[in-house]
Amino acid sequence: MSTPQPPMPQAAPSRPAAPGPSYPSYTSPIPVVRTHLGHAIASEWTKIKSVRSTMWTLGVFVLLVIGIGLGAGALVASSSETGDMEGQNPLSLGFFGLLLGSMCVITLGVLTTASEYGTGMIRTTMVACPSRGRVLAAKAIVFFAVAFVVTLASAVVVALVDVALLDGAKEPTAQEWLKGTVGISLYIALLGLLSLVIGSIIRHSAGAITVMIGLVLAPLVLALFMFSQSLESLREALFEYSIPNQLSVFYSNSLTESGPSGWDPLWIAFGVTAAAFAGAYALLEKRDV
From CA 205, how far away is CA 188, in angstroms rounded? Predict the structure, then answer.
């Protein structure tokens, strides 16, 4: 005998829509706005002020610049050779503190970009702001502003105290004040910005810091060991365009009689940083995060 098949289920009859008013689609109470560079800058400001590396590196920077600058001024003022500063720019006593402190600015600049690649947080950053150029620009603006303000404040403190300590020294002119405070602060900030760009290119903190320290110290060290007459022109070029010599130009104490003078170091630093920034932007658009 054949087994009887169960009856097939009947399709439910379609029902007409219930009478009544139709309701519009849901609208979020949170306003939706088009993002812009200001939002990215606010995000990067939150990042840079909330990490410990910023406070440590800038704290050490301030201690080096002010400590060494005021120590040099006090030492010269208390010695019997204070008259040796007559005719010289007393602001130049801040040179050594700024030279050593620049290592802190370089380190912070590298960490601003390279540390995110090391921890993987760059993926979150790019998801929040898919425009990679905007992210790089925001990092550059925030870092440059922080580095410039901190450097300017430190340099002004050292300059004011050293001028007050050295009564017998020449009173700096307005041009010397501008170069010894604003000019050198812009240069240090550009040096840190170059470090930020190198960090974005290399994407490795230790490697980028090593490259930047080599850029600061290697030309001058190499020039010191070039004794051959055939290398005299190269030796002079390394002396003239080394970063320590360019820093000293802001105090009119160049290591050589030729080479950059006046505001030339600032334009050189600006040109190099702009070229590196363009390269970092091109790589950022092509490479994966």
Answer: 19
